[in-house]
Fold L-aspartate oxidase.
Amino acid sequence: MLPGPIRSVESDVLIIGGGLAGLAAALEAVRTVPRVTVLCKRKSGMSGNTLVSGGGFAAFLPGGDDSCERYVQDTMESGKGMNDRTLVEILARQSAPAIERLEGWGVKFMRLNGEFMSKHAPGHSCPRSLYCEFGPREQTIRGLAVLRPLRDRVSQAGARLMDHVAVIQLVKKDDRVIGALGIDLAQEELIYFSAQAVILAAGGAGRLFSRNNNSAEITGDAFSLALNAGVPLRDMEFVQFYPTMLHDPVKLTLSNTLFGDGAVLRNALGEKFMVKYAPQDADMATRDQMCQAIFGEIGAKRAVADQVYLDCTGIPAPALERSHRRLKQYLEQHGVDMQKDWLPVSPAAHFSMGGIRINACCETSLEGLYAAGECAGGVHGANRLATNALTEAVVFGSIAGERAASFAAKAGNLKVPPPRIVWPDGGTGKETCAEIRNFLCKTMWENASIIRSKESLSRAWENIRHCRERLSRRGCAGFRDWAKYLELKGMCQVAEAVVRAALCREESRGSHFREDFPRENTRWIGSVEVAMMEEHNFRVDFRPSHGFYR
Ligand SMILES: Cc1cc2nc3c(=O)[nH]c(=O)nc-3n(C[C@H](O)[C@H](O)[C@H](O)COP(=O)(O)OP(=O)(O)OC[C@H]3O[C@@H](n4cnc5c(N)ncnc54)[C@H](O)[C@@H]3O)c2cc1C
């Protein structure tokens, strides 16, 4: 059945995603072109991983011990040299101007005696993480401190914000993107958004794994939209897991900067175990090392119910008061005393290092299509450093906005009628999307998360195929159901991209640990690229890198 007549909305620049990258892109684009539209599956400025983030931005601020080169080096070290160095240099160079821009847009950063308060996060060789000021009730939505002023600015600047619109397909003419199709979830209608240029800023794919700390709608849509438009993804095997997720008495991601102030991990026997796994850095090791160490302790039965302890009792009271006062108060409200109690923590899927291949201008392989923020790959390599993602979102969001707008200003208007689209209403399968999705996410956690092998990844691949078949037997009853169906179909494709890339890389590097290939191997210096030739027919290529930094 055809889903009825399609309403059209025209724009110069169409932005898919209302998180930090999308809003930063909009603020740049409106400076050049008049018609900028931001589409968001939930509500722009109230969604995505930016909302639940800790509000920490890494930045090299001139005048201290830090340097641009040192920041680049730290990021490359953490990424095990898999990063695109050009993108990393842009990140480092543009980090201070990005903070200045954010302040200009009304974002407030924590300061001490008028100076930025800079924290030392694991993996960075010096303190360079700045944090936003957030309100007393915003412990679990600290990103609001960034998003609220940006959303206000974007509306004041005249961009059109369309909330509760899930983009389901990019529309192409020949080798150029000319818009997108979206389902308005509130009005229950299909809309054709035509545009001169399109920016993908729809975030990562943490929700692919049953244990994660991502916002509910972060299901990898940008990746499946790109795959279905023939745009390749890189480094999809590199998924970051966050080591210190508290589940009880509240669900909360506990900041890595606690380690910089003296917190340590302990196993069920009370032993500090990080020194065994990372003798040099111990509790200042990177997230990948911490997660693998925790899984090591779980495997050796030195954990309690798959959890270890975060012991903050060694943090000196002044440091706790200065840097973690709000967290301390929040936990106290839930009956936890950080100065006495050890906090039970375990890893959860956190961040997609891989993503859409972009160049320094955020251009993708498809003319007119740009990507920025977590959905773009290349900046972080095999493992992301703490607080580098928000800086990335604002730096590359701005670049994408500027470049897309200047492309749109020059590009000819391609008038193309809305594409015809058919929804699958003939299926007889009775399974709900939720049932199939739970199975998919459980399979990804159990077989393709922190510790992988050919056997576990092959099992994951087989189960993904099974999910796809189960889904194809289902019909759709209405627009919302159709949106859920397509979201899950996309999740199956993205899960397959992760698994196929992880199967391809027969070594361990950064966040990608293969117990059948437990060491780094120089043969694998380069990136694994995954593209979809036609539905479910993937091409997986290894592209050697010749500019390795070590
Ligand atoms: C718990 C947590 C804490 C973190 N803390 C930090 C930190 O302190 N510092 C740091 O640097 N990084 C942190 N990160 C990572 C960082 O928050 C993200 O990488 C970053 O916010 C991504 O920004 P983005 O704009 O690319 O995507 P997001 O903020 O995730 O925004 C994506 C947007 O796309 C929309 N969307 C998705 N699919 C569709 C679709 N099909 N159609 C339309 N819209 C769609 C979403 O609704 C959302 O508005 C944290 C992450 C988590 C999960």
Q: What stands out?
A: The CA atoms of residues 72 and 89 lie 6 Å apart. The mean pLDDT is 94.
